[in-house]
Amino acid sequence: MSKSGRLLAILNLIRTHHAITSLKLAEKCGVSERTIFRDLAALCDVGAPVYYDNGYKLLPGFFLPPINLSVDEYLTFKVALLGSPLKSLKSQSANIHSLIAKIDVAVNSHVPEQLKRRRHTQQISVRNTTDNRTADLTIRLLQKAVDNHSVVTFRYASVSSGTAQREVNPYFIVFRGRAWYLLAYCRKHREIRTFRIDRITRVSFTDRQFEPDPKVSPDSYFASSWEVYTGTPVSVKIHFRGKAAAVISTGQRHPDETVRRLPNKSIEYSVAVAGIEEISRWIVGFGADATVIEPPKLIARVREMASGTLANHPAGRSK
User: pLDDT value at position 58?
Assistant: First the structure.
């Protein structure tokens, strides 16, 4: 927690307790009692009316009128923030905890009282495969470029074409398909492309700026994507049976999908999706419970993947 976030947390703890000791504040904030004394002095220096009377207290009337959030609204806000992939980035995690601390200070006193009697039973867990050791700094640099409409260059390690220098107009930073991506106009290919953040190195600002195309948005760009890949939409039809049919009949995998029950208790799944690579990996995961009906190139790709997997796992192999 940043110092500013901790100071807000201390104010909130003092506000919501009748009288709280420095030792209890240290335990709640995860710092030493000595640090708490310094923080209390800092609060007094900026005019916070903290005083000691068998514990630390605040003079009445110090806070502005509270934000009128219900307990459900407060929990929705907190669960959404703590479950965000932003939390995995060091710089953004500090912002999240600071924001929560500010809300904690401002909510009506009945909220913390009700929370003491209520278990937290909701959680969002988003799998993030980005290498955050390098992504944090890269995202901060690219966000600055996005905000200032600055043309940037960087080295990009493409899985298909290797490492090369790129010059781009950065538009958006998005989290999609378990990783962070930059959505940018690539000057080499003269089109909007996605760049996985943890494959970007050596970001450098040029002295040029660009005018963003107002028609470009993440929603429109990824409209037909299965996850991240883009391209011309392909009409796909798959039959699922057994346990796979039960899985597919609940939930939604794509906004444009159609699910139809067949007489033999199987499911016909139809969707127009950009490219076949991502959806083919998904289909193979269902094994014998999935049959691709169309298009032919998807059938061929699934056969190729299944054959390769079978070849790598010959009968009788134990190691």
Answer: 85
